[in-house]
Amino acid sequence: MAAPRDRSWLEIASGRQLALLVGALFALNLALYWPGAMMNDSLNQYKEAVSGRFTDWHPPVMAWLWSVLRRVHDGPAPLFALHLCAYWAGIAAYADAARRLGHRRIALALALSGAFPAFVFMNAYVIKDVGMAAALVAGSGLLFWFRSQGRRPGWGWAAAAALLLAYGTLVRTNAVFAIGPLLAYAIAPDRWLRPLRLGAVAVVVALAAVPASMVVNQLLFHPVQRHAVESLFLYDIAGTAAQLHEPALLAPRARMSDDQLQACYSPFWWDSFSAWGPCGRWVARPDPDRATYGEGLAAQWLGTIAAHPLAWAEHRLKHFNSELFFLVPLKHMRFAPEYRGELPGFTPYERFTPAQVRMDLVRKNPTVWPITWLAWGAALLVLLSRCAPSPGVLAARPLLVSALAYSGAYLLVGVATDLRYHYWSLLASVIATLLVGPELAVGWRLRSRGLWAALLLTGAVVAAGLAARLFDLQAWVG
Q1: Residues 405/202, Cβ–Cβ less than 8 Å
Q2: Which residues contact 27 (CB under 8 A, 6 or more apart)?
Q3: CA–CA separation, 241 vs 221, rounded Å?
Q4: Dmax over Cα atoms in the chain, in whole Å?
Q5: How many other C-beta atoms are found inside a 10 Å radius of the C-beta of residue 210?
Q6: What residue spans define the domains of the chain?
Q7: 376, 429 in Cβ contact below 8 A?
């Protein structure tokens, strides 16, 4: 009889091995993008960090933290390194907990999942989405490390987890939709961590956390109001008007013809109506420091939805489809107003070449579509509702509900399309899937109908998305 093959290289057998692997991946991630990349949002927040004058256009906690870290070094490097430290510490905590549970191969998979190319690329940017994901994975990973061993964290570790979850919640306005299930995992008994209950907690905590986070931000940072929510109001009114071909719905906020409205509106993002967008010149913009800024806009928004609910729903579904990268053509950004070249008096950006359009399928393949992971996460959550409450199952349920609640909220509040908005959802879904690897392996061996249904559902979603790209489906992008 042949001797069994040594498979030790496929697993993490000791804490030292894990530390070496995660340390090497952290160093690689750090070296690849040092000192960190900046985008427009980052630059605006850094200006606030330098001036010490914060606004609420972006949650001020990141700019405040940056202002403190500037005492160490100017520029993005300190915050870039801090976010990466939190991210890889969270990955290490999940992997080490799995190793201690005896799941050595899963420990290796968890460690390597942190180096998924989309995540490493995302970590290059010093942006609030990365700050949120890094803080939440670190905080939840720390909780899992203790809870999976049946241990209660000491006051120091509990305070660290609380600070991480608080930063992750405050650094993005809509992070309130993600935090409820993680808080339930921190304090609720095992028998309570059921999907429906966690979903209810996500809604209740979000409703309470929205005003609470505003109060906390005002008390701690005294930000100048910039009324960022009004971008949502304007976008929804414009989107509803575009579906109905009734530009008069925008008055008095904006005055334009139907041809102009159709050329300006895109489910891809609201940017064309922004101060920096090609259609910003048609939008009335009072002084943002005036108390009357946007007066009556919220009422106009609610009235528009009440009067035209179907047109509003069509607009929201089109945008949500764009955000999830679902039934869209290749490089669907090319159908945004800035790239279509249909706006009079506006010079369009450089057109995309056919090769760039085709490359979109490689860069934005099904493994990074938010719709792929949300479909799989929803199906997996149904499966886990019937599973015995192992440590992995008990942690996976809150992660999946958090991911679904966070990305699902963009159906109502999203105004732009970018993968970074769903970073936490993808990361949480990947970790949750690996945590329940033993249960999935048993289901595979037993040919579980539920598991096959979940795989078929996910496969059908991917097939539909691929077909939309191959046939250049444009019905939902304008």
Answers
A1: yes
A2: none
A3: 37
A4: 84
A5: 13
A6: 14-223+366-468, 229-284+297-323+326-363
A7: yes
- How many Å apart are CA 54 and CA 65, to the nearest integer? 11
In 3-state terms, what secondary structure has residue 283?
strand
Return all residues near 4 (Cβ < 8 A) that are at least 6 apart.
none
Are 18 and 92 spatial neighbours (Cβ–Cβ below 8 Å)? yes
Q: Using one digit for the tens of pLDDT, what is the confidence trace for 86-130?
A: 999 999 999 999 999 999 999 999 999 999 999 999 999 999 999
**Which residue reads 């660290």 in tokens?**
160
Tokens of 448: 């579980």
Q: What is the CA radius of gyration of the chain?
A: 23
Q: How many angstroms separate the CA atoms of 349 and 5, rounded?
A: 57
Taking only the tens place, the pLDDT of each residue in 334-366 is 999 888 877 777 777 777 888 888 888 888 999
3-state secondary structure of 351: coil
Sign of CA dihedral 369, 370, 374, 375: negative
Q: Is the peptide bond before 252 cis (omega within 30 degrees of 0)?
A: yes
Overall pTM > 0.85? yes
Q: In this structure, what token pair is assigned to residue 338?
A: 């800035």
